[in-house]
Amino acid sequence: MALQAVAGSKIYIGTRVALPTDLTVDLTDFAPQETEWLQINGWTNAGALGDAREAISQNFIDADRTETIKGTKNAAEMQNVFAPDYSDPGQNRLRQAVDDCSNYAFKIEWGAGCAANGPVTISVATPGVVTWPGGHGLKAGSPVIFAATGGTLPTGLTAGTVYYVVAAGLTPTTFSVSATPGGAAIATTAAGTATSITATAQPAGRTVMFYGIALSASENGGEANTAQMGTHSIKPNTNLVRV
């Protein structure tokens, strides 16, 4: 068991989305958001996130007892606090979402300040294989970003772009990546010119995505030495996708 800090976490808002009829999403549903995510800056307090089951109860006279069974899943409202910044694009989109009837895509990177980081090599192959000495601790779908020192990555990959670990060929020390969650593994066609390559990746299960609505926004008052903060309520309307 490894403890994870909330410090360093980041929250993002995507675009308006249409809810699926079964209210269920998977990694592929978030592929169109990769170029749309806006970080909501100034996050000072993160609310709880997760599903609870509604309870269905029936009283039985002859048993002198109430039996309870599981009902539908219902996510609680996530109460988040931000330092108001009307120049921040992420906060402004969140305010827009409060006034909108639409659902939006949301992403949270819990404890992003503790993301795994280390030197890697990338082969020229179909697909390209990333080797992370000492082990990477990632699973299929985990997001990975590469940085190149002194040059470029192998052809087919771009520094600073978010890629996703694919299931095929995944070992404790090697993996290939795709451009979208659940997508095809990327082939590298020529060696890069970088003198070194560094990979940064969230621990498995620490990135959460969902569709939801922004229900409310309020700003506190207080005595003279109180910092003014804004509270925003986000209500998931789908399952939570973890990578």
Write the layout of secondary structure elements.
Elements: E1 10-17, E2 38-39, E3 43-45, E4 51-60, E5 65-75, E6 78-82, H1 89-99, E7 103-109, E8 116-122, E9 130-131, E10 143-149, E11 162-165, E12 174-175, E13 177-178, E14 196-201, E15 207-219, E16 230-236, E17 241-242
Structure summarized in a few sentences:
The chain has 243 residues and is mostly beta strands. It has one helix at residues 89-99; strands at 10-17, 38-39, 43-45, 51-60, 65-75, 78-82, 103-109, 116-122, 130-131, 143-149, 162-165, 174-175, 177-178, 196-201, 207-219, 230-236, 241-242.
Considering DSSP H and I runs of 4 or more, what fraction of the residues is helical? under 10%
- Mean pLDDT score: 92
Q: What is the H-and-E element order? A: EEEEEEHEEEEEEEEEEE
The shape, in one word, is globular
Distance between the termini: 18 Å
Could you name the CATH class of the largest domain? Mainly Beta
**Which fold does the CATH topology of the largest domain refer to?**
Elongation Factor Tu (Ef-tu), domain 3
Helical stretch tally: 1
% residues in beta strands: 35-45%
Q: Report the uncertain regions.
A: none
The total of beta strands comes to: 17
Structural class: mainly beta
How many separate domains? 2
Give the biggest beta sheet.
8 strands, antiparallel
Work out the radius of gyration: 21 Å
CATH architecture of the largest domain: Beta Barrel
Describe the structure.
With 243 residues, this protein is mainly beta. Helices cover 5% and strands 40% of the residues. The mean pLDDT is 92.
